[in-house]
């Protein structure tokens, strides 16, 4: 049972809904909303308290793209946490390719940098007891029906992973939608390296699937954003089974940290060719996920950017 859970990016969307669902579990005594913006976090906390009738929500302010911000936030955590949901991140937007002070591009820094530091700092200070869940994505192994190509790296070497993280891998044609899958691949492989390094903890990668009510469409160009938000997401994609409600996506996260069926070192996502429905082990058909050397290379590449 998880009595205390920390969720990054918990003031909106899937993170907030996961916080609501977890609060309704009788064993939950504390949910930490790990957010970037104080005002938005306060609004989310008030709404969650009203919807659940629980006064168990706490706020910690931190920017997961900023290493120092995360380290300072960890100092505020006084008692060990049972589980962490690494939810913050996403496609980011127009500035995704911009290089941050860490050397990672903004897309990688937002999805990986702070999460790695958060987990490793908590472990170092003996403040993590059970489970880490990473929000990954079907973009890693691609979905042909949606025109999403699978990640296809030449060597998965340390240098190649590092090139994904600083953006040089993509040359002058930085496509944020394509880069997102590669960044999540690096993060997922890091999770697997951690699963082998810390066998007494559980590290699960879980895709929430294609979920309505998230900010994803906001990061597309204006015309495509309009089509996605007002036509594709609410009408077309549900009809063809390519999108589900935010409650369903969040439940994947809740189950991932709560259900013993989900094992450490596994990436769970929709079945091949799907974005919704039952989740399965992606390593059964995307075999690079099982390569221990690739996992170690991802870990080493990330730590090139962590001072």
Number of helices: 9
Mean pLDDT, to the nearest integer, reads 91
How many domains?
1
Q: What is the count of β-strands?
A: 8
Q: Using the alpha-carbon principal axes, give the shape.
A: globular
Q: CATH superfamily, please?
A: NAD(P)-binding Rossmann-like Domain
Distance between the termini: 35 Å
Structure classification: alpha/beta
Stretches with pLDDT under 50, minimum 5 residues: 215-240
User: What letter string, H or E per element, gives the SSE order?
Assistant: EHEHEHEHEHHEHHEEH
Percentage of β-strand residues: 5-15%
The strands making up the biggest β-sheet line up spatially as 3-2-1-4-5-6-7-8
Assign the CATH class.
Alpha Beta
Reconstruct the topology from this structure.
Layout: E1 4-8, H1 13-23, E2 30-35, H2 38-52, E3 57-61, H3 67-75, E4 81-86, H4 106-124, E5 128-135, H5 158-166, H6 176-197, E6 202-206, H7 222-239, H8 246-258, E7 266-270, E8 279-281, H9 292-303
Parallel strand pairs: 1-2, 1-4, 2-3, 4-5, 5-6, 6-7
Antiparallel strand pairs: 7-8
């Amino acid at each position: 049972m998880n009595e205390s859970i920390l969720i990054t990016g918990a003031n909106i969307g899937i993170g907030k809904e996961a916080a609501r669902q977890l609060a309704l579990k009788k064993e939950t005594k504390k949910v930490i909303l790990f957010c970037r913006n104080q005002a938005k976090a306060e609004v989310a906390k008030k709404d969650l308290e009203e919807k659940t009738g629980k006064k168990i929500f706490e706020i910690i302010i931190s920017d997961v793209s900023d290493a120092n911000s995360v380290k300072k936030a960890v100092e505020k955590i006084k008692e060990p946490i049972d589980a962490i949901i690494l939810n913050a991140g996403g496609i980011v937007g127009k500035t995704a390719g911009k290089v941050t002070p860490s050397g990672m591009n903004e897309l990688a820094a937002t999805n990986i940098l702070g999460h790695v530091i958060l987990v490793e700092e908590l472990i170092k200070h003996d403040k993590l007891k059970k489970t880490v869940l990473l929000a990954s994505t079907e973009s890693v192994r691609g979905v042909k029906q949606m025109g999403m190509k699978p990640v296809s790296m030449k060597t998965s070497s340390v240098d190649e992973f590092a090139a994904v993280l600083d953006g040089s891998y993509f040359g002058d044609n930085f496509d944020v939608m394509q880069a997102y899958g590669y960044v999540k691949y690096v993060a997922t492989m890091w999770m697997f390296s951690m699963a082998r390094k810390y066998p007494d903890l559980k590290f699960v990668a879980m895709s929430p699937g294609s979920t309505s009510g998230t900010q994803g469409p906001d990061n597309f160009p204006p015309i495509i954003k309009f089509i996605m938000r007002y036509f594709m997401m609410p009408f077309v994609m549900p009809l063809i089974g390519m999108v589900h409600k935010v409650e369903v996506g969040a439940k994947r996260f809740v189950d991932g940290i709560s259900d013993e069926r989900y094992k450490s070192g596994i990436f769970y996502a929709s079945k091949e060719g799907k974005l919704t429905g039952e989740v399965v082990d992606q390593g059964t058909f995307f075999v690079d996920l099982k390569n221990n050397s690739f996992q170690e290379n991802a870990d080493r590449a990330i730590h090139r950017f962590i001072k």
